[in-house]
Amino acid sequence: MAVPAVASVMCVSPWAGATALRGHERVGVILPASERFPGARHAWLEGFESELRRQGVAPTMAIEHASTPSQLRGAVNALLQQEVRLVAAWSDGNELLEHQHALADHGVRLVLSDFGAKALRKSAEAHVVRCGPELWRHAFAAGHDLARRGARSMLVVAGYYESGFDLVHATLRGFRAGGGQRHEIVVTGTPDLSAGDAGWLRANTTVQGAAPDVVMSLHSAHEIEGFHTFWVSRANRWKGRALAALVGDSDAPRLASSESSAVSLYQPRMIDVGTTRSTISTDSMAAQAGRSAAQVASGLPRPTWATLRRETPSFWAPLDGSGWHHPALSNGLHGPGAGAAGWLSPYGA
Predict the structure, then answer these.
(1) What residues pair up with 216 in beta bridges, in sequence order?
(2) Which contacts of 133-136 are long-range, i.e. CB under 8 A and separated by 24 or more positions?
């Protein structure tokens, strides 16, 4: 079976030869001070360290933890005082870019390897490489794919946590770029209007009124199961509706065989030999992001990430890469011509 073209990043090493990491050098690592997904922070670091060992590189590590802008500023300053040569970070890319000039002044390279739920608002300089999954691109590709497969109207149901990133906006940009015509948005799990079951009831009312072709779920952790319960309880009333979700495989809702044909699951994956048959969870995606950071730091080509759609319970197929490289993204997600982005009403981003 032929594998379609995948959404890819140019496979050329941004830092080869003299700039590649050497075993005796000090490397700074910035990890989140808190984490929504238990174990993901450890998985990222293990992926980073194991890949360095595989490359035969064993640098001295200096690890800082930071989440807020002030914490990040303190972490960067602490690492500069320790005279690191490279900083590998799983943290907010936009906040870290505020420090790219300071890092450049000290000859320090920066590897951004977060989940990428936010698009970068400014250009990264030559000493900065982003090599994580960039979830916003996968959200764009999923929306684009659903429209190309015939959906013309969409309801995006997003968790309160997910709505604070660029995932909703990217999904809708992709949907419109693929030919989608109208959309509605409901945010669940908000502190007041959509707390508890209220969010699901709002989504149900919107489905009944707007009658969308597809319902796109942007949820994580336990809320994925909550959405699935909501979906199944209303399946008989939602005849003809399709469900799509951007999830990790082990986080995916358990689907009966009768449901599978109406459900599209999408996920990001770093392309390797086992891409189409292995499973991926939030922790394993974090480990892949850590591996990708180590590969770039070692002078290897930047890894290729692709958006996969589940074709069968055990097989995930990469999408055609046109969604990633669509002209709508020529100026980035928030560049000229991108349309409104700001906060959703009453919640979101």
Answers:
(1) 156, 244
(2) 133/268, 133/270, 133/285, 133/288, 133/289, 133/305, 134/268, 134/305, 135/165, 135/167, 135/246, 135/268, 136/165, 136/166, 136/167, 136/169, 136/170, 136/333
Cβ–Cβ contacts within 10 Å for residue 236, how many?
7
By C-alpha distance, which of 266, 284, 263 is closest to 274? Answer: 284
Q: Which amino acid is present at 320? A: D
- For the stretch 23-79, pLDDT in tens is 668 999 999 987 666 688 999 999 999 999 988 887 889 999 998 999 999 999 999
* Cα 264 from Cα 244, distance rounded (Å): 5
Question: Which pLDDT tens digit goes with each residue over 296-306?
Answer: 998 888 888 88
DSSP 334: S
Instruction: Report how far Cα 339 is from the mean position of its chain's Cα atoms.
Output: 21
Residues with Cβ within 8 Å of residue 222, at least 6 apart in sequence? none
d(CA 236, CA 240): 9
Neighbours of 332 (CB within 10 A): 13
Separation of alpha carbons 326 and 178, rounded Å:
9
Question: For the packed helices 135-148 and 167-177, what is the interaxial angle rounded to 10 degrees?
Answer: 30
pLDDT of residue 11: 38
C-alpha angle with apex 223: 241 to 173, nearest 5 degrees?
A: 55
What gap in Å lies between CA 18 and CA 209, rounded to an integer? Answer: 61
Domains assigned to the chain: 17-134 (3.40.50.2300), 136-273+305-329 (3.40.50.2300)
Residue 115 in tokens? 């989940």
